[in-house]
Amino acid sequence: MPKTFVIAQGGGPTPVINQTMAGAALEARKRYPKAKVLGALHGVRGIRDGRFAELHKVSEEDLKAIAATPSAALGSTRDKPDAAYTKLVLEGLEKVKADVFVNIGGNDTSDTQRILTDAAGDRMVFMHAPKTIDNDLMENDHTPGFISAGEFVAAAFKSVDFDFRSLPGIYVGIVMGRHAGFLTAASAAWRDEKDDGPHLIYVPERAFSTAQFIDDVKRVMDKHKRCIVAVSEGVTTADGTSLVEAIVGSDKVERDAHGNVKLSGSDLNRAFEQALAEGLPGKRARVDALGYLPRSFIGTGNRTDAREAFKAGAMAVATAEQGGASIALQYEGGKTVFRRVPLASVAAKTRHMPDNFLNKDGTGLAKAGTAYFERLIPRKYRTGRPFV
Amino acid sequence: MPKTFVIAQGGGPTPVINQTMAGAALEARKRYPKAKVLGALHGVRGIRDGRFAELHKVSEEDLKAIAATPSAALGSTRDKPDAAYTKLVLEGLEKVKADVFVNIGGNDTSDTQRILTDAAGDRMVFMHAPKTIDNDLMENDHTPGFISAGEFVAAAFKSVDFDFRSLPGIYVGIVMGRHAGFLTAASAAWRDEKDDGPHLIYVPERAFSTAQFIDDVKRVMDKHKRCIVAVSEGVTTADGTSLVEAIVGSDKVERDAHGNVKLSGSDLNRAFEQALAEGLPGKRARVDALGYLPRSFIGTGNRTDAREAFKAGAMAVATAEQGGASIALQYEGGKTVFRRVPLASVAAKTRHMPDNFLNKDGTGLAKAGTAYFERLIPRKYRTGRPFV
After folding, report:
1. A216 and A363: one domain?
2. Residues of chain B found within 8 Å of residue A299, distances taken between Cβ atoms
3. Residue A383 lies in a domain
4. Are B6 and B36 in contact (CB under 8 A)?
5. Alpha carbons A112 and A105: distance in angstroms, whole number
6. Do A289 and B288 count as a contact with CB atoms less than 8 A apart?
7. For this structure, is A305 an active site residue?
8. A13 part of contact set with chain B, CB < 8 Å
9. What is the pLDDT of residues A267-308, one digit of tens each?
């Protein structure tokens, strides 16, 4: 009987998550020419509801065009299966006679695979292919999606720095990142000279204090007449409360099925606007969130990232016969290598930025951080030096 | 005696305003090899304060590298000279023995040139080279900077549409544009299929009503399960008050030297968030401002736009001996032609989107609008069709 593969995409999309989907689908078709390859629409929800795209009927050309398109072409989900939901997903997988289920996503998605493995015993193979712009998966040097998103963030802050040389003031750019500051720190990847922005970065790995923030901005303004700030939406005060939660009140914040606080409202913008208006009255200040652009912008999509994302999907299929696992991108001997690691070593865990990536006060990159981001996110554009 | 040119940049930067600066500087050096070419730092303010870059000493190679860099490399200003300031600027120009002053900018900058012309009589030539991402200069088919910024906006909304196919909900993207909706309307330039976003656009040329907005979003959500909205920061209610002013209170809004209301705070974000929370309770909604990225993003920078921007600067210098004027980009016989037009025909005036660019209810492009944006902003990226 021909094999049946189910592929799904979970969590926030990335510019290259479709590469992983295409990598898995094309590898399955290459290894098992008669295989059925079903793409679950909107992740586990599509499996539960019996909604699939028949990827074995899509031409290789069309799959490659989709691979080069940002965001999750199968649709994604933030559902986190509880016991009853898990049962329905397993029934859905059995209904289509799935042999292998490749779920592409981050730590929540890998946790879903772990839960399904615990529930399903040996009835099928559950593979996890890594994806997250947050770069926060354990066992990984970096994750598919991060390089492209990081490239957007580096480009955006390089651009805003040019803008604020022209019309000086204070800029605060809010970057996605709940628990890990990698993406926010990528804002500093393309600094060339000492006075280049971003001049300050704030990440969830270090306690955030509004008073200290204002002092930091004052210091930079005195020195450079402008101040470019990159801040993670998940920055957290010393008592461990996220800044959004501290502002909105923990009884009022919205949460998703995974218990994550909703960070995407304008509360954080407003808090920074007010802090700057009070701390540096009369200074031109602008606070913006980069929002979804880092994870979906059609104009970024780094080639290395695309290639690695494709390979991660292909390897999840190619090694499924060895049993369920997560695919990890590790760095050894000057290159990225792909390894199988236990689902439990990745599931529902968060990798934080190593302590030595940040300087002493936590507002800039230290040598190890600079080296890491320069290795991963090489400069893409040549620019001249402004006269101001 | 060798000629002296002064070049300045005014108003908000664009991705190609440095092309115009380089075009003017290199044309001056070509025509008058011994000319002094002074770049005023931060516009008229630099002239007043005697702060200049000596552009005749910068290598052609360096000037071309700067030309390809977004934002105003000489620094910009929002100062609007009153009588006393005008006198200081004229003194500053006479101090450096300026023969020609080329000021690159939008309608406020061209007004500065008009004021200087009125004050200075025949003592020197005042040229205006067009620049604005708002595309709102009279006499022009389009303005240098608009194509690049429009390309960013088209790409951003194409990207966000992919994102929201994956995780459905409502997205409101706020786009720069005080009085003219061209840049916001450019969000629809790359729609391919009928269900592609943006599904709704709101521009300053049509009265905005929050109740109508909610009805519109409900209609789109029923049809597509997601709703992508592009809205100009300058949208205005039926009584002629900008929405920001209506929200903040006209006594409390901040204004710049030109009397323009500050639109860049998060008040508008919050107003849309609250309207959606009340009008469509429980629906996932995200409101973001694209902020400065359309005008400064290093990754956009359309080649046609760059070439036209360069040429506008060169022509300002090349035709200065005919007397003060503004350079206009007009469209005739299927191509863009450059013409000299009187400063007064551009100065402090605003070109709005032609009425026939929008459909009847004003929330989408009509045929003439689609044709205009497709001509100006050709698709740059190939994408596949998602399964959802």
Report:
1. yes
2. 152, 155, 159, 299-300, 380-381
3. no
4. no
5. 10
6. yes
7. no
8. yes
9. 899 999 999 999 999 999 999 999 999 999 998 789 999 999
Ramachandran region, residue A102 (left: φ > 0; alpha: ψ -120 to 50; beta: rest):
beta
Q: Which of B134, B161, B267, B305 is catalytic?
A: B134
Sheet with A170-175: strands ordered across: A200-202, A227-232, A170-175, A285-289
**Looking at the whole model, is its pTM more than 0.80?**
yes
Under an 8 A CB cutoff, do A163 and B66 touch?
no
A360 to A16, A363, A365, A369: CA distances (angstroms): 34, 8, 9, 12
Confirm whether A382 is domain-assigned.
no
Restricting to B residues 30-59, those with a Cβ less than 8 Å away from any Cβ of A are: 39, 41-42, 53
Task: Tell me the residue range of the domain where A209 lies.
Answer: 149-297+352-376
* CB contact (8 A) between residue B387 and residue A41: yes
Q: Which residue has the tokens 């040119």?
A: B5
Q: Are residues B176 and B228 in the same domain?
A: yes
Q: Is residue B42 part of a domain?
A: yes
> CA B162, CA A16: separation in Å to the nearest integer?
12
Q: Is A48 exposed, middle or buried (0-12, 13-18, 19+ CB in 10 A)?
A: buried
Residues B132 and B46 in one domain: yes
CATH code of the domain in which B166 resides: 3.40.50.460
Tokens of B176: 């720069």
Does the pLDDT at position A255 exceed 90? no
Question: Are B229 and B266 in the same domain?
Answer: yes
Spot the catalytic one: A99, A108, A111, A134. A134
Is there a single domain that holds both residue A100 and residue A204? no
Q: How many angstroms separate the Cα of A16 from the Cα of each of A27, A300, A340, B239?
A: 17, 10, 20, 47
Number of helical (H) and strand (E) elements in chain B, helices listed first = 13, 11
Give the CATH number for residue A57: 3.40.50.450
Domain total in chain A: 2
Whether the ipTM is more than 0.85: the answer is yes
In a domain, A138, yes or no: yes
